[in-house]
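Budget justification aside, the reviewers requested a transparent look at the raw inputs and outputs of the sequence design task funded under Objective 1. We therefore reproduce one unedited record. The lines immediately below are the structure tokens for a 185-residue chain.
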């Protein structure tokens, strides 16, 4: 997926109340229940329907590494949809989202100010409107670059401009060379 998309998914997954199935047969049974049949699961995972049936019956227990990764990803994508929706809704309406990053940041500002890019480690609580914009863009299938732009706008408003109390003439924040990125709801 992407750095920002994966980070947002990881933050939402921290809200899960129960762990997702761990074993391949349990994951396969979960997907069969969710997709209402072995044929749909087989098409989703790009394996034969008979292979899916053998996993469901515990005749096969250990998948190939690439199949294990696809299976894990598909289960996590569908696990606890109501909890996922509630966590996103809460972040988008009341709580906001915390971004913890170590990246190169600079900005475009009027002549005479120091706008040199430099590595900064920031932990900033973004307001709910930025959480909503990030989640909406992610749902719409936005690219990692677009999610990065939204995060940069949030950092500009909250960190650099302090909600309008300083750096009012700041035009644009550059957010590049990301070493670490983590979101928390």
């Amino acid at each position: 997926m992407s750095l920002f998309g994966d980070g947002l998914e990881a933050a939402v997954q921290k809200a899960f109340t129960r762990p997702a199935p761990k074993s391949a047969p349990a994951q396969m049974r979960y997907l069969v229940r969710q997709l209402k049949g072995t044929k749909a699961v087989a098409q989703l995972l790009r394996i034969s329907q008979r292979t899916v049936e053998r996993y469901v019956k515990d005749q096969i227990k250990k998948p190939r590494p690439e199949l294990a990764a696809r299976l894990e990803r598909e289960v996590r994508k569908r696990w606890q949809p109501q909890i996922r929706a509630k966590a996103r809704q809460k972040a988008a309406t009341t709580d906001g989202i915390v971004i913890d990053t170590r990246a190169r940041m600079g900005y475009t500002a009027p002549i005479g100010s120091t706008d040199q890019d430099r590595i900064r480690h920031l932990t900033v609580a973004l307001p709910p409107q930025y959480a909503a914009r990030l989640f909406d863009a992610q749902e719409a299938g936005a690219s990692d670059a677009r999610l990065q732009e939204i995060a940069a706008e949030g950092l500009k408003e909250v960190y650099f401009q302090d909600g309008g109390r300083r750096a009012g003439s700041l035009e644009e924040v550059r957010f590049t060379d990301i070493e670490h990125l983590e979101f928390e709801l």
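The chain has eight helices and three strands. The mean pLDDT is 90. Computational costs for records of this kind are itemized in the attached budget.
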